[in-house]
Amino acid sequence: MSWLGGSGSGAGASADSGETWELRLYVAGGSPQCLHAIENLRLVCEQYLHGRYHIDVVDLLENPRLAAYEQILVVPTLVRQLPSPIRKVVGDLSDTARLLAGLQLPPRNTDVP
């Protein structure tokens, strides 16, 4: 299953650079935790990377060999493929601050007018 979340171009590793972020979320079927991770990731991407991300959802029940090949020990696991370096975040992605830190995205400052 795949999700395309907009398109963009450019270079650089910051969220504001215009570079398209390539994200891969490993799940195991339609478990509540995996479905929650998909929704949480979509919401964060729309808020912080609107139009500049691509999410590929990989169901390890359909492709179990990928778990060993990609060294995925726990699901859900999010892997940031681009921008480099590769980063991994494990869990349902409900802790937004932890997700932002794992992806190296700066939190939005809501105090600025």
What's the gist of this structure?
With 113 residues, the chain is an alpha+beta fold.
Topology, please?
Blueprint lengths: L1 E4 L15 E7 L4 H17 L4 E7 L5 H5 L7 E6 L4 E4 L5 H8 L10
Parallel strand pairs: 2-3
Antiparallel strand pairs: 1-3, 2-4, 4-5
What does this protein look like?
It is a single chain. This protein is an alpha+beta fold. The protein has a single domain, classed as Glutaredoxin (3-Layer(aba) Sandwich). It is 27% helix and 25% strand. The chain has three helices and five strands; from the N terminus they run ββαβαββα. It has a five-stranded mixed sheet, with helices on one face. A hairpin with a 4-residue loop joins β4 and β5 (87-90). The longest helix has 17 residues, at 32-48. It is globular. It starts with a strand and ends in a 10-residue tail after the last helix.
